[in-house]
């Protein structure tokens, strides 16, 4: 009996234990905490199925890699829109004359820059059709778009994006961004959204729209782009650190060209939290914005001291053992993230990202955010086993005493 007890104990201790985080959150669980007053997550009254964070300091902090971001919105499709809390530095949309050409001289300033985020091949209309012209005034005359995308656009979607960790990049999805010109004089927020969404651009990294900035305020007096313009409502400027977390205190660019001004000016937030029209070649803070997949899992509480974080990935669960006498030249560097295909399933990773090897039943997992193993529920099994062993030990003890 003692021998059986030792065998069962050794068997149970050999079973791997994978703890499950009971507090793991998704975009759906975040939506369970909707508020109607104060700081927090609100139903977006202008777009069906969308949720936005509002207020001076809502619990929407999320740490991605080593950097702190804020969740701006949960989109209708479940994707999560985030903005970097700290600026990556001051940059212009373009250096002077960077995109100017005789073909686009009506849209671009020879002396300054262009106020177009996309180019004549990447700008889209509301149907998704490519357009080569766009007005720089709302309902104005169509002008030829530049042949290149904004220099800042190119930087964010190459240098900045490539500098992110693989875990973060694996969660970023392509977004459809509103890049239409917007009037600072517009007093109706719904009309401003309509102006912005008249033209679009698809990509992974961009900036916040001017209407994102307006919506983030919990001050009912700050309900339009015009309210926030430097000539507008004073409380929108003086008290923005109290009612608008997107103030950021660093003069950030928006993605919205100013349709009430010259062809090189874009709306940006000033140090006083008011909106200003700024030349695209001038320096202003850059706070990158991107969308996280609807499959993103989060830990934490969203506070500044305990922000949302990505669950730690399960690293290699088992590596295929190679015969020491096998020619190592055939190995082809397959030591990264080797996981037995029979033992795991990959969550949130398309099947095309798995490179299956039939000869050794190994799959190389690329950019997996969450790995679930079929042996995860071993904790319950261990409890049952320990209880069973304890029962056997009790019975055997009784039997030994009776024989004595």
Q: How would you describe the overall organization of this protein?
A:
The chain has ten helices and 23 strands. The longest helix has 26 residues. Helices cover 21% and strands 21% of the residues. The chain starts with a helix and ends with a helix. A hairpin with a 7-residue loop joins strand 1 and strand 2. Strands 1, 2, 3, 4, 5, 10, 13 and 18 form an eight-stranded antiparallel beta sheet that branches. It has a three-stranded antiparallel beta sheet with strand order 7-12-11, with no helix packed on it. It is an alpha+beta fold.
Structural descriptors:
404 residues, alpha+beta, eight-stranded antiparallel β-sheet, three-stranded antiparallel β-sheet, 10 helices, 23 strands, 21% helix
């Amino acid at each position: 009996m003692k021998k059986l007890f030792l065998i069962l104990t050794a068997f149970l201790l050999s079973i791997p234990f994978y703890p499950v985080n009971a507090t793991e959150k998704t975009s759906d669980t975040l939506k369970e905490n909707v508020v109607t007053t104060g700081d927090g997550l609100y139903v977006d009254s202008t777009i069906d199925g969308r949720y936005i964070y509002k207020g001076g300091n809502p619990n929407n902090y999320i740490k991605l890699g080593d950097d702190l971001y804020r969740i701006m919105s949960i989109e209708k499709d479940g994707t999560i829109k985030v903005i970097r809390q700290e600026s990556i530095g001051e940059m212009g949309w373009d250096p002077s004359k960077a995109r100017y050409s005789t073909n686009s001289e009506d849209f671009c300033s020879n002396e300054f820059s262009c106020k177009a985020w996309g180019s004549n091949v990447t700008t889209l209309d509301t149907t998704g059709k490519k357009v080569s012209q766009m007005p720089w005034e709302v309902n104005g005359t169509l002008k030829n778009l530049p042949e290149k995308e904004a220099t800042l656009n190119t930087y964010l979607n190459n240098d900045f994006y490539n500098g992110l960790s693989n875990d973060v990049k694996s969660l970023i999805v392509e977004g459809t961004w509103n890049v239409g010109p917007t009037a600072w004089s517009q007093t109706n927020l719904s009309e401003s959204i309509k102006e912005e969404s008249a033209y679009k651009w698809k990509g992974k990294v961009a900036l916040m729209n001017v209407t994102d900035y307006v919506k983030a305020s919990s001050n009912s007096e700050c309900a339009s782009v015009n309210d926030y313009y430097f000539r507008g409502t004073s409380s929108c400027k003086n008290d923005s650190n109290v009612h608008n977390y997107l103030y950021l205190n660093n003069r950030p660019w928006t993605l919205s060209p100013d349709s009430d001004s010259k062809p090189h000016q874009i709306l940006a937030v000033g140090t006083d939290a008011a909106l200003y029209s700024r030349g695209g070649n001038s320096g202003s803070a850059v706070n990158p914005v991107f969308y996280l997949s609807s499959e993103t899992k989060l830990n934490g509480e969203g506070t500044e001291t305990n922000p949302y974080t990505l669950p730690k990935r399960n690293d290699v669960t088992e590596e295929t053992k190679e015969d020491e006498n096998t020619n190592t030249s055939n190995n082809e560097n397959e030591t990264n993230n080797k996981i037995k295909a029979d033992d795991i399933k990959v969550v949130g990773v398309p099947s095309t990202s798995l490179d299956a090897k039939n000869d050794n039943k190994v799959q190389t997992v690329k950019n997996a955010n969450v790995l679930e193993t079929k042996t995860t529920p071993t904790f319950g099994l261990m409890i049952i086993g320990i209880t069973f062993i304890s029962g056997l030990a009790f019975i055997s003890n009784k039997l030994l005493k009776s024989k004595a």
